[in-house]
Amino acid sequence: MQLSRAGEYAIRAMLHLAATSDEGISQIATISKTWAIPESFLRKILQSLTKAGLVASSRGMGGGLTLARPADQITLLDVIEAIEGKIFLNVCLTGPGNCESSTWCPVHCVWHEAQRSFTDILKSKSLKDLVINSDFKEHFQIT
Amino acid sequence: MQLSRAGEYAIRAMLHLAATSDEGISQIATISKTWAIPESFLRKILQSLTKAGLVASSRGMGGGLTLARPADQITLLDVIEAIEGKIFLNVCLTGPGNCESSTWCPVHCVWHEAQRSFTDILKSKSLKDLVINSDFKEHFQIT
DNA sequence: TGTAACAGGACAAAAAAGGTCACATTTGAC
DNA sequence: GTCAAATGTGACCTTTTTTGTCCTGTTACA
Q1: pLDDT, tens digit, 9 for 90 and up, residues A109-121
Q2: Is there a contact between B36 and A3 if contact means CB atoms under 8 Å apart?
Q3: How many beta carbons lie within 10 A of that of residue B70, not counting itself?
Q4: Strand D: which nucleotides have any atom within 7 A of a protein Cβ?
Q5: What is the reported pTM?
């Protein structure tokens, strides 16, 4: 019931890309050093984000990473689900897998409601919102 | 980012106790069979619930388990936190552990808000509510 | 005293998380 | 064309967590 470290790393990296988007492309090595994320591991995480269509990558000299979409069109939920998969699936009492029979499964709808309000908030804020409304950018410039 | 199986088992067991509270005491073996939960594992889970003060146990012949409080005074959140600990703690971006400096950590408050709305819903419904507003009781009588 | 119940600790197997490495591939610059 | 800079990919390893099992108490009642 906690965000994985991979998920946390992914958010850091995405915020980094959002904050530096006007300076062009970023390299994995840079992000790794700035945020103290093991480089090999970060590479894996960014691969997932690329496959999910959130990050655009280019290889070769001068290559690197950028956001695949404008920062105001990527939400926290996008990032988390790209790494962890759909949130909260399959939590029900009927047994393994199928809980369509919500008539007698009393927890079904409560869980659904809780999940919904949770994800609604995570998708209400874009990366752009997050970077703008804080000292994030200044702070990590210094570091 | 999912409820553990132990948490799911715990909810089943607590609903069972809530639904049978008027018939008196229940045994672990019965709950285990009714809900297809491995008995040894269930014993461990119920120990946690007992320690958390949600379940009252008595040993010896004629012993067994009951809810420690009326079913309308136990919430889903109570049950889940008894098994999994406080939800979502320590998930933040500042680094390992301490995120008091929410001035520059842009995700802090979003996360906090999401966590709050999630837990609010989980504690808005008691076991009694859940058992009454469904065919739960009938269904598991038959099984 | 025997039996039916829970309590608790040690331990084991399996799965997931976190991380590393070697090598492949692409790209641009010389 | 070759070299170096960058990501892509798969195999692998280690540690931690989850999911149990088992054995030995302990309590209580008949």
Answers
A1: 888 889 899 999 9
A2: no
A3: 12
A4: 4-11, 18-23, 25-30
A5: 0.91
